[in-house]
Amino acid sequence: MREDIEQRLSEIRFGPDGLVPAIAQQHDTGEVLMLAWMNREAVRTSLAEGRACYWSRSRARLWRKGETSGQVQILRELRLDCDGDALLLLVDQEGVACHTGRRSCFFRAWREDGWQTLGAPQISPEELYSKSGG
Amino acid sequence: MREDIEQRLSEIRFGPDGLVPAIAQQHDTGEVLMLAWMNREAVRTSLAEGRACYWSRSRARLWRKGETSGQVQILRELRLDCDGDALLLLVDQEGVACHTGRRSCFFRAWREDGWQTLGAPQISPEELYSKSGG
Question: How much is the ipTM here?
Answer without folding.
Answer: 0.94
